[in-house]
Amino acid sequence: MAQNIREVSIFAPMTGKIVDLTEVPDEAFSKKMMGDGVAIIPTDGMLYSPIGGVVTAVAATKHAIGFQTNTGLDILVHVGLEAHAVTETTTILHVKEGQRVQAGDLVAEYDLGAFEEKMINPITPVVLVKEEEDGTEIKANVGDVEAGAGEIFKVVEIIAPEEPKEKPEPEEKPEPKKAGPDPTEAENSLMDLLSADGGEYFKDPKSLLKLGVVFISIVVVLAVVFALLALHLNGGE
């Protein structure tokens, strides 16, 4: 099955030169303990958002700012090494936690002259914060870059395919009743028909005459039967 791939561009937060993380003189970054990415040696102190999304964290000393992309990737921008004392007092912030930003929005202004006076290395790591089994890889660029415009690296995400949803079992529907006559209705209809026929029969004069003839015939037959029975009995005496 082919894998679903999504690529997200991370843009330069500062103008300067892109270098590999291994060149950062801090093992937390050079050994990628915090995540993979690149570093920038800045030429000025203007910091812009590297992504479109949300500002998720701002360090109390203003030296580190976290972002989250609209697709859920966490990006950390760490300005300088051991720059806490200088950044806390000289940095001008233009955002706060929870604020939505677009790539290229001005986030903060750092005083690189103060860095130089204190002999602080201004190298700025920009990393995709490591997550266990995050299924991502980095495609880094090198060379000079302009803040807000140049892409410093691309995050390639492997998107797990969604499991097909189980179809709900169809509900059992009661079988429709077979069409056919209702015995009760049929019986009632028959009685009604007979009653109706009987009423009509007795209303017909011809029918009454026929009944009279039949009745007389029965009486005559019975009379003959009784007469023959009487003769038989008398003859036996």
CATH class of the largest domain: Mainly Beta
Report the uncertain regions: 193-202
Note the overall shape: rod-shaped
Adjacency order of strands in the biggest sheet: 9-5-6-7-11-3-2-13
- Round the Cα radius of gyration to an integer and report it: 52 Å
CATH names the topology of the largest domain as Glucose Permease (Domain IIA)
- Mean pLDDT across all amino acids: 81
> Could you give me the name of the CATH homologous superfamily of the largest domain?
Glucose Permease (Domain IIA)
Helical amount: 25-40%
Order of helices and strands: EEHEEEEEHEEEHEEEEHH
Distance between the ends: 120 Å
The CATH architecture category of the largest domain equals: Distorted Sandwich
| Strand content bin | 25-35%
Biggest sheet descriptor: 8 strands, antiparallel
Structural class: alpha+beta
Oligomer: single chain
Can you walk through the features of this model?
By secondary structure, the protein is an alpha+beta fold. It folds into 2 domains: 4-159, Glucose Permease (Domain IIA), CATH 2.70.70.10; 190-236. It contains 5 helices and 14 strands. It has helices at 27-30, 84-90, 112-117, 183-203, 205-236; strands at 4-11, 16-20, 35-42, 46-48, 53-58, 64-69, 74-78, 92-93, 100-101, 106-109, 124-129, 136-140, 143-145, 151-159. The strands form 3 sheets. An 8-stranded antiparallel beta sheet has the order 9-5-6-7-11-3-2-13, with no helix packed on it. A 3-stranded antiparallel beta sheet has the order 1-14-12, with no helix packed on it. The termini are far apart. 24% of the residues are buried. The model is unreliable at 193-202 (pLDDT under 50).
